[in-house]
Design brief:
15% strand; alpha/beta; globular; single chain; binds nicotinamide-adenine-dinucleotide; eight-stranded parallel beta sheet
Length: 447
């Protein structure tokens, strides 16, 4: 294996960490058979030859495997973090040194650095972007719409130095984008409704082989993993309050129950709440759950789901965290006002004193599974990133015809990914007989 640096431009913690990053990336690769097969085809067909892709994703070992796949397809790639806490510094070093990826990401980077890195990824001049939460695409649209006041400082500073033509060219150069997560898709659909979306987007999250597996099984397991790593708490016998019973919430509720917790679900949507009840969970408003929970986790994609009135009602030692995309689900600013004291009591744990009782907030309310653990297992990211890789190929192949809208990948692509995964797992399934095909297409065969 080469250790000669490809010397890609970068702003990372330490290039000397590259060996460890390479070992861990190779370990993840073992559990990513679908992406491996796509990479082999890409290396032969080079569908992204000469393309420039800017990615704003969690910088993990699984993402590294996606980056290597895009490189195999012939693309130049720049990568910045989609969360200030989720970067694995050794992985960043490996990608720079061994794969020539331009990486701008440092674990624990402050707000200013986070957006400086986004500006650097944009300055790369991409044809395509890949987002996890729509921060890159959002910035591009603010530039296009001239809403420079809405850009964060570093991005605004970069744009202010550009001429009007250069700004126009930056946005016009982007042929399309892919989006990884629920929250990003919601933002992009809002742009499409407002009529401001500038290029086609593939909502990777909307593929069944993404949200039914990554959001449910990936988030379910890795969120519990992050909570345990941060706190070393015993799950059995505890009361865990899960806010939101969407794909992610279902996953966490299922895993927490499996580990022996009593699980309470809070919801705002009646069908989801009913499903949670039918699945055997207690369902109640957050105001009623607040005094009961030993641990609270939000997975809603919504703002201020746990607020000061809830913090005030919690018992001494209650633990609160978030696994939704943005750190907006816990009203930390409200808690700061309420608290008489705050101190860090353990890595990733801030203790707030609220009316004499202690409330413990994990990872500043950021995604706990990425901040305190390693994110999703590679085998589930295998499917998510197979979708990302095929979405990039699809966008380039259809760039002349795709409308400026949020698209799903065609169902055949979803099914192909599932087929490859099943084959890798050694699972066979039945196929429809001709008679069944005819029956399913008919309307006149009754009782
Ligand atoms: N931690 C991770 O690794 C990870 C992985 C995938 C998605 N996500 C993020 O997790 C969040 C949820 O994703 P999802 O796919 O489960 O979305 P989803 O739309 O399937 O589910 C969200 C649920 O939250 C409910 N909800 C909204 N506001 C609420 C409130 N105030 N109180 C209680 N419930 C409320 C909604 O009714 C919905 O049922 C998103 O921000 C998504 O981007 C995180």
């Amino acid at each position: 294996m080469t250790t000669k640096s490809l010397d890609a431009p970068h702003d990372i913690r330490d290039l000397a960490l590259a060996d460890e990053g390479r070992r861990r990336t190779e370990w993840a690769e073992r559990s990513m058979p679908v992406l491996r097969q796509i990479r082999a085809r890409f290396a032969a067909e080079r569908p992204l030859a000469g393309r420039r892709i800017a990615c704003c994703l969690h910088v993990t070992t699984e993402t590294a495997n996606l980056m290597i796949t895009l490189r195999a397809a012939g693309a130049e790639v720049a990568l910045c973090a989609s969360n200030p806490l989720s970067t694995q510094d050794d992985v960043a070093a490996h990608l720079v040194r061994d794969h020539g990826v331009h990486v701008y990401a440092i674990k624990g980077e402050d707000h200013e650095t986070y957006y400086t890195h986004i500006a650097q990824a944009l300055a790369f001049g991409p044809d395509l972007t890949q987002d996890d939460g729509a921060d890159l695409v959002g910035s591009l649209h603010m530039i296009k719409l001239g809403r420079l006041g809405d850009l964060s400082g570093p991005v605004r500073a970069m744009v202010e130095e550009m001429s009007a033509e250069e700004r126009e060219a930056l946005v016009a150069g982007v042929r399309g984008s892919t989006e990884e997560t629920t929250t990003g898709v919601i933002r992009l659909k809002a742009m499409a409704v407002e009529g401001v979306l500038q290029f086609p987007v593939i909502a990777v999250n909307d593929s069944r082989t993404k949200h039914m597996f990554d959001n449910r099984y990936g988030t379910g397991q890795s969120t519990l993993d992050g909570i345990i790593r941060a706190t070393n708490m015993l799950v059995a016998g505890s009361t865990i309050v899960v806010a939101g019973y969407g794909w992610c919430g279902r996953g966490l509720a299922m895993r927490a129950r499996g580990a022996g917790a009593r699980v309470i679900v809070t919801e705002v949507e009646p069908v989801a709440a009913l499903e949670a009840r039918m699945d055997g969970f207690d369902v109640m408003p957050m105001a009623e759950a607040a005094p009961l929970g030993d641990l609270f986790c939000t997975l809603t994609g919504n703002l201020h789901v746990i607020r000061p009135e809830h913090f005030r009602a919690m018992k001494d030692g209650a633990i609160v965290c978030n696994s939704g995309h943005f750190n907006v689900e816990l009203d930390i600013a409200g808690l700061e006002v309420l608290a008489s004291d705050k101190r860090e009591v353990r890595r990733f744990i801030d203790e707030y004193v609220v009316e004499g009782r202690r409330v413990l907030v994990l990872a500043e309310g950021r995604l706990i599974n990425l901040a305190a653990a390693e994110g999703h297992p590679a085998s589930v990211m295998d499917m998510s990133f197979a979708n990302q890789a095929l979405a990039a190929e699809y966008l380039i192949a259809h760039e002349a015809t795709l409308e400026r809208a949020v698209h799903r990948l065609p169902p055949e692509v979803d099914q192909e990914i599932a087929r490859l995964k099943l084959a890798a797992m050694g699972v066979g399934i039945d196929t429809l007989t001709d008679e069944q095909v005819t029956y399913l297409a008919s309307w006149d065969a009754g009782t």
